[in-house]
Amino acid sequence: MRVTVIGSGYVGLVASVCFSELGHDVISIDNDAHKIALLSAGEVPIYEKYLPELLEKHLGKRLKFSTDIVEAVRASSVVFIAVGTPATPEGDSDLSYVEAVARALASAINDYKVVVEKSTVPVFTSEWIRKIMLLNGVSHELFDVASNPEFLREGTAVRDFLFPDRIVLGADTKRSGAMLQEIYAPLSSGKFYQSNSLVPTPAEAKIPPLVITTSTKSAELIKHASNAFLAMKISFINAVANVCEAVGADINEVCEGIGTDSRIGRRFLNPGIGYGGSCFPKDLRSFQAVAKDAGYEFRLLQEIIAVNEQQLTRFMRKLRTALWTLRGKRLAVLGLAFKGGTDDIRESPALCLVQSLIKEGCQVRAYDPAAMARTQEYLVSPNLEFAASPYAAAEGADGLLILTDWEEFTHLDLPRLRKLMAYPIVLDGRNLYDPQLMAQNGFTYYSVGRAFAMPPQTTAVQTQSLA
Ligand code: UGA
Predict the structure, then answer these.
(1) Of ligand 1's atoms, which has the minimum distance to the CA of residue 278?
(2) Domain boundaries, the chain
(3) Whether residue 280 has its Cβ less than 6 Å from ligand 1
(4) Residue 150 Cβ < 6 Å to ligand 1
(5) CB within 8 Å of 17: residues ≥ 6 apart
(6) What is the pLDDT of residue 464?
(7) How many Å apart are CA 136 and CA 138, to the nearest integer?
(8) What residue's CA is closest to ligand 1, atom 25?
(9) Contacts 24+ apart (CB under 8 A), 379-386
(10) Could you tell me the fold of the domain covering 223-307?
(11) Whether the CB of 345 sits within 6 Å of ligand 1
């Protein structure tokens, strides 16, 4: 099929490249001429596995980039809207980019098109798009508005797109529903999985994926509700972790005990310093605003957000317990991205903590495998420097903080780290290590929802002094 994707940001770019991989002819549109020039030259502006390879495979063949929305729309039968929907200061979604696209579509449409929302938008956005297009003179026979929410995660976006758990198609007319089905037919029929894609099949892939057809409004709600539910799992387990700390239980054991109940599931039950990123924080606030506008006070969402914010304060308190005063302390920080596998620092809890440390007068030396360049653009302070490796960050440090769950941080050379640090104190905000192993390697180790651990000789001294 001939497809236009408006917006070449995270979702739009991944969708464009993956639709090409499914065999469609795609035009990816953005009004940022610089970005379009970069992409047309085969350069990928974001850090995402398999994206460079797929871009190289399809660029100039099934995939082209352009700033000309009118030409692209006229050449396509389906138009996906994947522009940004940033949060307003009040917490609801700023839909002005979506509205601008709807107006542009109105001036471009010359025959029947399906206009599909792919950006995360509040329920009723499809109705607004429809109204704007009608108001701008497009006949109702010339278009339908549908919703096809995206569930991809940064870092595994291409894999999530091509091997989804489910595909949600929200359409209110048979014609638009059928066209959406056709777009995803290579996945839903299983045909794509017989081809030789350069993206390997994940072990847990559901093949073929389930296709769920709904009304447009339900599809819009499914997206917000999914993200809110996942964030709720994270806040729930963080709250349980806090109770574990208070009563001396172990959150890992508790997670295993509850996560193995198939009704609950183990995924998204990893405690830590809270969720971040460009999706959960924004979507929870937006969902809250949507519910409020509809006359429902969704208090549970408020609590999820509050628990998430408290995780940062609790971590700072733990740091004070470990180091006493903070002014002038030299701290090694491992991780700046909002999670491992990405260079994205938007609403990163790691970065929030780094800002708090700087404010407290600490000297921070940070290392992140991918997010240092972005952090350098965003945060400049005489109290913040960057290191070339975890070990360079740790040299002479009074404490080491693990703030992002990068795979690279799960197998550090502990004896080497121990030798490099001035004081062997580790605060692990992602529970990447076994407390006993850390203690055996000479570290005083604090994590989330588990008792802190100390090297055996220190424990004796500590017990004596406490007595
Ligand atoms: C999230 C959803 O997982 C996707 O399904 C959705 O499509 C996407 O938002 C979106 O709306 O576009 P993403 O923000 O890329 O994806 O990242 P996640 O892997 O969900 O992680 C979000 C945050 O939660 C990260 O800060 C991560 O460290 C944290 N997290 C995740 C935990 O603290 N514990 C967990 O068990 C899982």
Answers:
(1) 14
(2) 2-214, 223-307, 308-446
(3) yes
(4) yes
(5) 51, 54, 55, 58, 63, 158
(6) 46
(7) 6
(8) 275
(9) 379/351, 379/354, 379/355, 383/357, 383/358, 384/354, 384/358
(10) N-(1-d-carboxylethyl)-l-norvaline Dehydrogenase; domain 2 (1.10.1040)
(11) no
Write down the pTM of the prediction. 0.94
2-214: what CATH class? alpha beta
- Look up 279 and say whether it is catalytic: yes
Which of 120, 159, 258, 275 for mutating ligand 1's site (highest number of atoms within 8 Å of CB)?
275
| pLDDT one-digit tens code per residue, 368-377 | 999 999 999 9
Distance 44 CA to ligand 1 centre (A): 22
The mean pLDDT of 269-289, rounded to a whole number, is: 95
The confidence score (pLDDT) of residue 87 equals 85
CA distance 50 to 200: 10
Looking at residue 459, its pLDDT comes to 55
- Which residue has the least CA distance to atom 6 on ligand 1? 151
Domains 2-214 and 223-307 in one fold: no
Query: How much of the chain exceeds pLDDT 90, in percent?
Result: 91
> Which residue is closest in CA terms to ligand 1's atom 8?
153
Q: Which two tokens stand for residue 398?
A: 């009074």
Share of the chain above pLDDT 70, in %: 98
User: What's the pLDDT score for residue 352?
Assistant: 98
* Domain 308-446, CATH number (from 3.40.50.1820, 3.30.70.260, 3.40.50.720, 3.30.70.100): 3.40.50.720
Q: Which pLDDT score, from 0 to 100, does residue 93 have?
A: 83
